[in-house]
């Protein structure tokens, strides 16, 4: 393999170790030593790729975003599904309904908090949030065209609300067992998506 | 004043200094030394009241919750307002629409992240979230009785969604200028409350 590919693979492998560690033991366990043990690579190798604990955590955030976007792409690219089905899948894909998504939510929550102290982290989070809203808005527009949602839907407000509601539920579920139980109910995802069918999400004259 | 009252007053004064500091310079600046400078008390006095930086931050969280509940009480106790008006006021009171509420949101976001690492912080956050949902649910029930909201409202789901949406918007607004701008629009709070008028918040047979 060309050297650059090996480097990229190693970086990804180390970033995956950051995520596994964060998922299993919390973000506090993500240290150069911890990731070295988790990945099987030496501290020397770790230091070669990441100059600080902060860079390690950043690599974890980027990897989490990358995995999240791969999941979105798979949903958006699915054949024979309506836009409304895609909206359900996109919503479910952000809620911590299994270990993988729980790990993601923990990592994102950590970076949300980081974002109040670091302008770099804040910009990255804002960028991710903006992309997520745009993606959901496009699917909302497609769903109105297909007749799955009311034609007078204000897609911009509906996207703002649906992503913030999903985000709020995801973050709260990590902390509050009642919210975790609520999002695991059979119709929970459908009800979250149904909130866009309110007067709040309609165009106003 | 009895000694215990002086103690309580001093604790509150120091906790207020924690919040001012967190609001102005971020939670990272909340150290024993920083709070000593902010409050004008010596590090010795600080150490007498709070054994560690963690205890200082906890005092800040408790004070933020206390202030939040005082704001809720003022809203709930207001005469000549409908339950629906109270719902609007409760929602506005959580969104970071001024410096005070922005500081609160920053402090809560810090403790949300803490809650993924500390069981003690997690329990406190879950307790606060549970109380907030119950309070909003009671006002939703009152609004249906008054005819301000549909009689078949599922107050439990509507309260879960409304609090999570408000929470999500508040946290995202701290990080993302687009969300901050959106919640400052003239009808933003009304539209957030309007989301409960969707099929998601109706009782199902």
Can you offer a commentary on this structure?
Two copies of one chain form a homodimer. By secondary structure, the first copy, chain A, is mainly alpha-helical. Chain A has ten helices and no strands. Chain A has helices spanning 3-25, 32-39, 43-49, 53-77, 83-94, 99-115, 119-145, 155-175, 177-183, 188-194. In chain A, α5 packs antiparallel against α7 (119-145).
Write out key terms for the chains shown.
205 residues; mainly alpha; 10 helices; 75% helix; elongated
Helix content of chain A: over 70%
Main sheet record of chain A:
none
Termini separation of chain A (Å)?
60 Å
User: How many strands in all of chain A?
Assistant: 0
- Unreliable spans of chain A: none
Residue-averaged pLDDT of chain A? 90
Summary of the model, kept short:
2 copies of one chain form a homodimer. With 205 residues, chain A is an all-alpha fold. Chain A has 10 helices and no strands.
Strands, helices and their partners?
The structure is a homodimer.
Chain A: H1 3-25, H2 32-39, H3 43-49, H4 53-77, H5 83-94, H6 99-115, H7 119-145, H8 155-175, H9 177-183, H10 188-194
Helix pairs in contact in A: 1-2, 1-4, 1-6, 2-3, 4-5, 4-6, 5-7, 5-10, 6-7, 7-8, 8-9
